[in-house]
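Exercise 7. Predict the structure of GH16 domain-containing protein from Recurvomyces mirabilis.
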Amino acid sequence: MDYGHHAATTTTTAATTPRAGTPDSDPIEMAPVRNPFSSPYGSMPASAMGSSSGFQVAPAPRYFHSRRIQKGQQERPWLDRKDPKEKWVTIIPLIGIFIGLALTGFLVYDGLSSVQNHVYCSVLDDNFSQGINSKVWTKEVEVGGYGNGQFEWTTNTDENAFVQDGMLVIKPTLQDQKLMETNNVINLLADGSCSTKNWLDCVAVTNITNGTVVNPVKSARLSTKLGASIRYGRVEVEAQLPAGDWLWPAIWMLPNNDTYGPWPTSGEIDIMESRGNNYTYPQGGDNIVSSTLHWGPDSSNDGWYQNNVKREALHTTFAKGFHTYGLEWSEKYLFTYIDTRLLQVAYVNFNKPFWQKGNFPPSDANGTRLVDPWSQTGEDSTPFDQDFYLILNVAVGGTNGWFEDGVEGKPWVDASPTAKRDFWNARNQWYPTWQKQGAGEMQVKSVKMWQQKGYNGC
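Solution. The predicted structure, encoded as tokens:
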């Protein structure tokens, strides 16, 4: 036996066929494909996130659901049989719209048909191009305060009422200092200039001893009593109001005759009233105008407060420009307006007698029984059923409460017997406010009056 050589031993091993592209390499398991649009952590195998094992486990394949519409499953609603009730979903709203339009049309028609378009005749159309027509306008002359304790002496001179640049100007001025500070008498009866026969309205006295004085200012009051009046109709006055402390401009109307009794029984129509004080004045300065009717069985029972209406200027004052102050008056109603009939100030409907509107007490302060002074006519418009004439004026001060005591430095007290003297002594405070450019005077461009057809020959 040969011990120098070992017998050759043949060993058979199961060979693994190499993968294409990886010759002579061990088998490698591919990593799962990740969704690039999903969270990187949500798409990683669990072993890759927390396991220390080196083996990776492939995720189970996702189930693919086709959303492709199968043949024969298409919906064709237009081929379906429609429910006949569905048409009401469209018809009912259309019916509602039609009814709404019809109702709106009826209301518009009813409103338009109820508006009375009156026919008018021109009574006055004055632009003062020929000056102040004395056949139309009367300059009233009085010193009695016109029932309000007003401080002005209304004159008939060109100092206080004149035409300038084609406009009527009503301008208050200071009284002669000599008449205020020495004993003097103004007697309008003596020279025949007084507009009334009442002594108190025609005579004023300065008495240094007891503190009484004549009127501390002069102004003007023009009326159309002799030249133009209307019973129902329209009035329009284009004017710029004055600015100045304690001035009281007004455009208003009084009856030609006291048919039903003395004021206010026969009525008064205030188309416009204002105050010349600054817009900060608590009661309303030159930024406020008001309209009022006065009516009642006596002066202590005046129903003015039931129809007093104020209107404020928008971002300006009525002393900074011209406005048209108007009145429309018929048997059924009365209203005032500014610039256009659409911008009404006060509206009064003559829908029941004024005695019922007033709710007056059964008797006055003295116990005298109050009676209805208007019942004999049977008209709801009484006492505003007679001829009225127009008045333009600028009053100053007063003791009737138009300027409230103790407000904004008011230099007098209404109840004081020396109210006019106290006002005069404070002239260095208020008179400068009248002297500013364009202030202290009411300017009037035009005055128009129309008579409603069916009355006074129209």
